[in-house]
Design goal:
about 5% helix; mainly beta; about 650 residues; Maltoporin, Chain A
Length: about 650
């Protein structure tokens, strides 16, 4: 990890010199956006006090530092400090309002709010329990910056350990940028055999020819996760009624002490486009290729998972590989974009041998092929922005999404719809293990999703509502085996959020009500989920330091919380005991100086007076952490 960090710093230094050399003409006077979202020509700063003294290094407006996602969304560097920044300062870098974290950073999140809006016809091969830790292509940013941009994010672990997330963005030319990032995480939890060790790194680049006739985009992502698994504590009474005997959580017996899960994946791909008509560079022929290769391994667990069978390895291992080819045509204009083409996909699932467990035979390898076509449209002006995209396959699978936004003064209205018939994740219909009961192989039953979303944002806050239906939902039952629920499940939810401020004080409430109709044994969610942040902000040291301090409270009502199965990395639905109806209180002290952001948090400080009769769980047999002192630092450099 140290070697890779030193390598990143060396590359940053060398690239900084190159960019200042080549983009020295990017002055603030004319640093404006040109065609294809690139920086236009600018006037070089040649000011100096004396002939022998070199010119001072210019600073640039933060509005010139832009970041683009693969979906075409634009982000701008911001130095403001508000509660939403604090919500995202965790090991995922995302707001975790929709989930309940486990006791150690780098571990899974249990579902609290239904937030499934993915527009894909294929379930992810990434196990549900590690999806928050795996970096994906949709999270990458393509930089458009006048000087090198660097972001360093440090986060302290639980008992021992820390996380460092570093990334660099450079424009070698105004029309050519590269990005490089590395994240390393190692944290020791408070319970036996609870260690997380994770690495993620990425490289991406985006190039557009000055003539506008050619563009190329490429990315490469690698994830490596090694987590010690304890399968939860041996008995919940040790945690709830253990008293002084188990106030040291490291003394509570756990189910296993020799299990380990490993996930290694490599995702690469890109897209290239060429304009065959020289006079019409807006019309391009495109080709895209995405490859996803992953390897999963699980060791230990004999006493928990039951009888074993003859297996060539002493551990479970699964290999995934997926290729997606896209050939299409694209038309760009000032306000709109059209995309259409054909798509071809192949997915492999591979094991080390063919095995038979009872009446189930799991083959050594499985190959699935999908062919179809895709189309997308995007339109944007000062008042209206809407987009639609869809993919349809010959085997009946499809995914369609449309989203529109209208802005009128201080009001913003949004409406969206998602329709899809998708193949569930491979773990639901194919799994091979050395443990007898965890072997299954069947034809995947497509799931049907329908959802409508509405949102209204005004000076009084943001109100959003969604109604969805799911048919043939694949899930893990109370016996931790896969099942299909044939009935139609309906989910309705409404969320309100607003940052209210009065002078130097503020309160940011977020509250969600959701109802599940006909969920049966397959799905349950808490009826209420709430979070509120009460804070104080002020400028200190003659407007050099911006302070933000306060208390964050989070709560959700009791429900049949899903259990967690490390062997498959998935959650299973149980209906024997309700969990929830407890609150988490965090005391935080944040400050920001220019682009340096630091925070000190006493997480879950209310555990001080609840630790002798605790009821806070992340999943059955998985208690949440007691009080934790967390230190975090975010430092951004723009030259």
């Amino acid at each position: 990890m140290r070697f890779r960090l030193v390598l990143l710093l060396i590359m940053f230094y060398g690239s900084s010199i190159a960019q200042i050399d080549r983009l020295g003409g990017m002055g603030r006077e004319r640093g404006v956006q040109g065609r294809n979202n690139r920086l236009g020509p600018v006037v070089q700063d040649t000011s100096s006090t004396r002939g022998r003294k070199p010119a001072k290094l210019k600073t640039y407006p933060l509005a010139l530092y832009r970041f683009y996602t693969s979906a075409g969304d634009t982000l701008v560097l911001d130095t403001l400090l508000d509660p939403t920044d604090f919500h995202r300062t965790n090991f995922t870098g995302r707001d975790t309002y929709h989930g309940m974290p486990f006791q150690n950073i780098g571990q899974p999140f249990n579902r609290l709010v239904w937030n499934d809006t993915a527009a894909t016809a294929f379930g992810s091969p990434v196990p549900e329990g590690i999806q928050m830790s795996v970096r994906t292509a949709s999270e990458l940013h393509y930089h458009h910056v006048p000087t090198p941009f660097t972001r360093l994010f440090f986060l302290s672990g639980n008992k021992k350990g820390q996380m460092l997330d570093s990334r660099i963005g450079i424009n070698i030319r105004p029309n050519w940028n590269i990005g490089l990032g590395y994240k390393g995480l190692n944290s020791l939890g408070y319970y036996l055999h609870s260690l997380t060790s994770q690495e993620n790194w990425f490289f991406n680049t985006d190039y557009a020819a000055p003539s506008g006739r050619f563009f190329l985009r490429f990315y490469l992502i690698k994830n490596h996760l090694e987590n010690d698994e304890n399968n939860g504590i041996a008995d919940e009474s040790y945690f709830e009624q253990g008293g002084n005997a188990y106030i040291d959580r490291g003394k509570i017996p756990v189910r296993t002490t020799d299990d380990q899960s490993i996930w290694h994946s490599r995702q690469s791909g890109g897209e290239a486009g060429w304009a065959p008509l020289k006079k019409t560079p807006a019309l391009k022929l495109t080709y895209g290729l995405d490859e996803y290769k992953a390897y999963a391994e699980y060791k230990g667990g004999t006493a928990v998972y039951g009888n074993t069978l003859t297996y060539p390895l002493a551990y479970d291992s699964t290999g995934y590989r997926r290729f997606v080819h896209r050939l299409g045509i694209r038309w760009n204009s000032v306000r709109s974009q059209w995309i259409a083409g054909i798509v071809f996909q192949r997915m492999f699932v591979r094991y080390d041998t063919t095995i038979t467990a009872g009446n189930t035979t799991v083959p050594r390898s499985t190959l699935l092929t999908d062919r179809g076509f895709y189309a997308a449209y995007r339109y944007r002006d000062s008042l209206l922005h809407w987009r639609a995209k869809g993919a349809f396959y010959s085997n009946g699978l499809f995914a369609f999404e449309a989203l529109g936004t209208y802005v009128q003064g201080k009001h913003r209205f949004s409406a969206g719809i998602t329709l899809r018939k998708q193949r569930p994740a491979p773990v639901y219909w194919l799994h091979q293990s050395r443990f007898v009961r965890y072997n299954w192989h069947s034809s995947p039953t497509p799931e049907n999703y329908r959802q409508i979303r509405l949102q209204w944002q005004s000076p009084l806050g943001q109100l959003s509502s969604a109604y969805g239906q799911i048919q043939n939902l694949s899930y893990f039952g109370a016996d931790s085996l896969p099942k299909v629920y044939p009935n139609t499940i309906s989910i309705w939810s409404t969320t309100y959020r607003k940052d209210w401020r009065i002078k130097k004080w503020g309160v940011f409430p977020e509250i969600t009500y959701q109802s599940v109709f006909n969920g049966g044994p397959a799905l349950d969610l808490p009826a209420w989920r709430a979070r509120a942040t009460l804070y104080y902000t002020d400028w200190w040291f003659t407007h050099h330091l911006y302070l933000n301090t306060g208390i964050r409270l989070a709560w959700f009502s009791a429900y049949y919380m899903p259990g967690y199965l490390p062997l498959t990395g998935s959650f299973f639905q149980q209906h024997s005991k309700r969990y929830g109806n407890f609150y988490l209180a965090d005391l935080f002290f944040n400050f920001k100086v220019k682009k340096f952001y630091a925070y000190l948090v006493l997480e879950h400080f209310n555990a001080y007076w609840e630790k002798y009769q605790p009821r806070y769980y992340s999943a059955p047999f998985y208690p949440y952490a007691d009080q934790v002192i967390r230190l975090g630092i975010v430092w951004e450099f723009t030259n």
